[in-house]
Amino acid sequence: MSETRLASLAALAVVIHTLEGMIPMPFPWMRLGLANIVTLVVLALSGLGSALMVTVVRVVVGSLIAGQLLGPGFFLALAGGTAATVGMGLLHRVAGGGLSLVGVSLAGAFLHNAAQLAVAGLVYTRHAGVFYLLPVLMGLALPTGLVTGWLAERVVRRMKDDGESVNG
Amino acid sequence: MRPDRVVTTGDIIVFVLLLAATAAGVAFASRSRPAGEEAAIEVNGVLREKLALSVDRLLKIESPYGFNTVEVSGGRIRVREASCSNKICAAQGWVHRETEEIVCLPNRFSVRVAGRGGEKYDGITR
Amino acid sequence: MRMTAVVLMLGLLTAAGCRETDDSHRRSQYLMGTVVTITVAGLDRDDADRAMNAAFEEIRRLEGILTFFSEDSDLGRINAAAGERPVGVSAETIEVLAEARRISDRSGGAFDATIGPLVSLWGFEVKERFVPPKEEIERARTLVNWRNMAVDPELGTVRLERRGMKVDLGGIAKGYAADRAAETLRKHGVSRALVAVAGDIRAVGEKAVGVAWHVGIQHPREPGAVLGSLKIADRSVSTSGDYERYFIKDDVRYHHILDPATGRPAAASRSATVLAPTTTLSDALSTAAFVLGPEKGIALVRSVPGAEAIIVDREGRVHVTPGLAGKVEGLAS
Description:
The structure holds three protein chains of three kinds. In chain A, 78% of the residues lie in helices and 0% in strands.
């Protein structure tokens, strides 16, 4: 994948991340996870290194735009994002064709929530009550992971098709 | 075009495993924490109301910061309406277990579910 | 999407829990600087709610009349006119001050509503960790004397004889408010209720036929634990303790119940619990019994018809009036 394309995908991720942040959620750090579509696409087309880069750029620039750089939300997003990306990258590599992006995305959504909760619980609230949210967040990861994974898979196929026909 | 089949057997296995993990988590959480008996409503850190969750009711809590309307129904409590801008409190939905909490930062408003204070007694003289 | 999931998950969690039904209705409000809890039994929710609202409103009204912190309250005006002239006040103020005077007479001043100058000096209300100098305590102490407070029920006036005197109803106003709230509940058709203005508790009737209200007595040294418990119906109970508002400086516990005789925190007891026909009485008597300590305190309470007491002395020993012997549940010895 060209650097230009990677950069524009990272920019797209930032845009989605920012728009997503405007959707009200029960907890300020909670997100629909739509930005994960970009991560998945990059992962599938260009590998873990690129995906990780896109994730970090998304979180850093996204937090900058929201005015929350180095705030609690930033570290929560960073922890969730990197944990999910690394996990998804490894799973994608290990499972090969056994898993589509849907399965990878489901696992990523789980990791994302688990990592955020761990950081929130251990660093920010120091309150055991946070962990009672774990099953709830896990349950939420299922539908969102499913949708983002399915969308990512469709995008990747479309891009591959385009790539073959247009040779861009 | 490729065949439009997206989901593989592996995906389904992952889904089922995660579903099982979630179910186990829910079972654990619901067993480890008892249902609360009352909710304490505070504005700016000061107690405004204590409501028994056994009594269904609708109550509007007003303060200089705005209003929040809480609803108690079937042993649960939620914020039904609020004057705040983000409506995070209303979006959080129902809570009913001990230590569960709904917070509305713009209105400095909170609802916390608790067990009945000194359950054995109708009152405590102190 | 996620929102639907939240609702779903919470629904699941709820279904997993069990529900409990209770015919009593309980609500709390923050009034008179403390938590007021009213429990009403034997009525449907709407009627109970109406009665509770009226009772809370009555307490709010009394707070406005009896507060120490407002210059416009009856108390504020009485204090402002100290040493100058009699002040016309509401019937409620006359009632509570007349009762305060009676209890002062009876307790030889161990309970004294003119304690204001000492309370202001120690400043427990503003949470300062401050021990006033001896001379200032002495000066304030000479101003504390209920005999210099003239209450005239006919004219509806109160006069403080000396400039600088101040009435503080901290030891009786909550009890009086509980009595008035109970009265308001009765007027609204309530025959079973428990009114708790902080630890000043008034039981209206029984909780249910043959079931008394069960009231725990706070343990003076173990937060959240009870010393024992009492079953009461149509009666009041109050506790005064050295653990409610206090600070410890140089290993001395300075708390908010001052002994008018010394001008310092009373040191004879850890807590005094008094049962009486009204909460006005139990509130003031528990302060007096706390100040007097186990022997004189028990003697005082025994002299008041319908009153009983449990006093924990400074060593932690428990003393009870003969009428209460064996009737305090869970009390060791």
